[in-house]
Amino acid sequence: MKAFFLSRILKGVSILFISAGLLWGCAAYEMVHDKPVLFVLKELPEAERAIEEARLSGAATKCPEEFQKAQAMLDEAYRIYWECRDDEAVEKARAARDKAKSLCPPLPPPAPEPTPTVTPPPPSPEPKPEPAKVIIFEDVYFDFDMILLTKETEETLKRDIQILKENIEVKVQIEGYACAHGREKYNLLLGEWRAAAVKEYLIKEGGISPDRLTTISYGEGHLAMPEIPTPKNKNSKEAKANRRVHLKVIIR
Questions:
Q1: What average pLDDT does this structure show over 166-172?
Q2: Burial degree of 91 (CB within 10 A; 0-12, 13-18, 19+)
Q3: Contact predicate 178/145, CB 8 Å
Q4: Are 165 and 188 in contact, with CB atoms under 8 Å apart?
Q5: If you average pLDDT over residues 173-188, what whole number do you get?
Q6: Where exactly are the structural domains of the chain?
Q7: Which of 98, 43, 44 is nearest to 70 (CA)?
């Protein structure tokens, strides 16, 4: 008889120490009042509460089979836990919790009655956009190895100035060119000087704002007409066509 009481006392002391150790070092445990120990893994009480909430919401009568399955899963989780298989117990408890929370899902609301479709009248045709205005400037031409503006060149530039004044939103790039005679580097400079001469005329004589004008030189690049330079054809039709300045619209 004494041995029986002694064993009960030792078992109680052991349970007390185990529970105290869990309370001291593990936030993953939770106190319970109806189990052999004071603390168990928190996932088990969570599952219990979920099953109890399902029971209170009427799941035990609405879907009894599924409710019993959730309860059985929780019982199995506790059985596994008492066998010290914590990871399996946690997984089983979480499954029981999820099962309880998904019991007897509410029926989806009835679909709204379709509203009668009303065919709208065809849209009125959109007004056609006005065709884009085409702006074309006249090229100006130069004598061989010259950058001076001739009277003919000035007359052409006056017409270009009028177009610029009628289209104040337009900005242009003044492109200077040369024929294929002479060295490439020199022709590049020649194109630059010709473009600068045209820009100066547009500003001084035409009153065009400098911020609407930029210059660039292509020299003998981008020839208007193919040209084979020889000493005898400096004033050929091709050479004359290539000694030019072109106004290119860059902003409208």
A1: 93
A2: middle
A3: no
A4: no
A5: 94
A6: 11-101, 140-251
A7: 98
Is the model's pTM score more than 0.85? no
pLDDT in tens, 209-227: 999 999 999 999 888 899 8
Cα 2 from Cα 6, distance rounded (Å): 6
Longest dimension (CA), the chain: 140
Strands 213-219 and 140-141: unpaired
* Residues 6+ positions from 77 with CB-CB distance below 8 Å: 43, 44, 47, 89, 90, 92, 93, 96
3 state DSSP class of 219: strand
- Please give the structure tokens belonging to residue 199: 């820009």
d(CA 37, CA 17): 10
Token duo for residue 211: 């911020």
Q: If you average pLDDT over every residue of the chain, what do you get? A: 81
In CATH terms, the superfamily for domain 140-251 is: OmpA-like domain (3.30.1330.60)
Contact 35, 48 (CB under 8 A): no
- Per-residue model confidence as pLDDT tens digits over 237-250: 999 999 999 999 99
